[in-house]
Automatic annotation (TrEMBL):
NCBIfam families: PRK00816.1, rnfD. The gene is rnfD. Its EC number is 7.-.-.-. InterPro entries: NqrB/RnfD, RnfD_bac. This is Ion-translocating oxidoreductase complex subunit D. It comes from Cellvibrio polysaccharolyticus.
């Protein structure tokens, strides 16, 4: 049988942007469901409103730029941004807070830079940080996990919609997060703190509710790794750096302790950040070595800000700081082109 002798370039059919984004959304479903189980239906309502808001602002921007609206909406990048933003916000956030975040994410952090593929910063994290700095009260109204919330005060769908659109705060439903409790502790030994605070003594290895939410996002992250939607370099290096930092500075349980490695791994938005935010292909480093440096730096910054900064959960701040540094990392970690000598900053400058 005669074989065709065809010269390069040869076509290779990989996953499209639409398929990648669809898999990312599917992988986040376990985390979304578990988070909704422990923190109420407001989580799902947040996500739906955030996705709708991001799609609306994306459509508006594309129409103003005279671009094909349907084409850009169906790549699902705006939907993923809405999903991540909705998961990051406190349950039962007022509608205006969610839609403001959608505006900041799509218009300010994405479209003003040129749209998909040109944004230097993660859009969802830009929106989260702006909201946190601008509306600290609304952004710290996290619900108590289901095992600790007063059963009579856990809102259903109707009450949740009333809270979102009417702003009537449900008494007995909000509570400090485990990271906030740990950060505010100044006088209790770890054993005493864990006995006094129900969120700790009802948890299995970290904190009630939060540990299972992080486990669910970890499961989704494993799915993305197995399907090769994301690479292991950034998320694994971030988690390892966080473990190393929390182990080095873990003093064994004094009143000045910042928590154990397990506590930091399974509290806050650690796993969501590691597998769904740090792995953003646009705003992170591009080479494998660069991704390792990027992820490890995020892990170190997360622990530093959590322990000695002003904000208990530091994922957004750490990611944005490293988004600033990503071009610098890329500059010094450019892989050698096959058949050529390794490029150095000096030779690149001469070119």
């Amino acid at each position: 049988m005669a074989l065709l002798n065809i010269s390069s370039p040869h076509s290779h059919k990989g996953r499209s942007t639409r398929q990648v984004m669809q898999w990312v959304m599917l992988a986040a479903v376990p985390g979304l469901l578990v988070q909704s189980w422990f923190f109420g239906v407001g989580v799902i309502l947040n996500v739906l409103l955030a996705i709708a808001g991001c799609l609306a602002f994306e459509a508006l921007a594309m129409a103003l730029r005279k671009r094909p609206v349907r084409f850009y909406l169906t790549d699902y990048s705006a939907a993923v941004t809405g999903l991540l933003l909705g998961l990051s916000l406190p349950p039962l956030s007022p509608w205006w807070l969610v839609l403001s975040g959608c505006f900041f994410a799509i218009i300010l952090a994405k479209q003003l830079y040129g749209g998909m593929g040109f944004n230097p910063f993660n859009p969802a994290m830009v929106a989260y940080v702006i909201l946190l700095i601008s509306f600290p009260v609304e952004m710290t109204r996290w619900a108590a996990p289901a095992p600790l919330a007063e059963a009579a005060n856990v809102p259903g769908i109707v009450a949740s919609l009333g809270q979102i659109w009417g702003g009537n705060l449900v008494d007995g439903y909000t509570a400090a997060t485990p990271l906030d409790i740990m950060k505010q502790n100044t006088g209790l030994l770890m054993n005493d703190l864990y006995q006094q605070e129900a969120v700790f003594n009802q948890g299995s290895w970290a904190a009630a509710g939060w540990e299972w939410v992080n486990a669910a996002f970890l499961l989704g992250g494993f799915l993305l790794l197995a399907l090769r939607i994301i690479r292991w370099h950034a998320p694994i290096s971030m988690l390892l750096a966080l473990v190393v930092m929390s182990a080095l500075f873990n003093d064994g349980g004094s009143s000045q302790s910042h928590g154990s490695p397990l506590f930091h791994l399974f509290s806050g938005a650690t796993m969501l950040g590691a597998f769904f935010i740090v792995t953003d292909p646009v705003s992170s480093a591009v080479s494998n070595k660069g991704r390792i440096i990027f992820g490890a730096s995020v892990g170190v910054l997360v622990y530093v800000i959590r322990s000695w900064g002003n904000y208990p959960d530091a994922i957004a701040f750490a990611v944005l700081l490293m988004n600033f540094a990503a071009p610098f990392i890329d500059y010094y970690t450019v892989p050698r082109t096959y058949g050529h000598k390794k490029s150095t900053p000096a030779t690149r400058k001469e070119d």
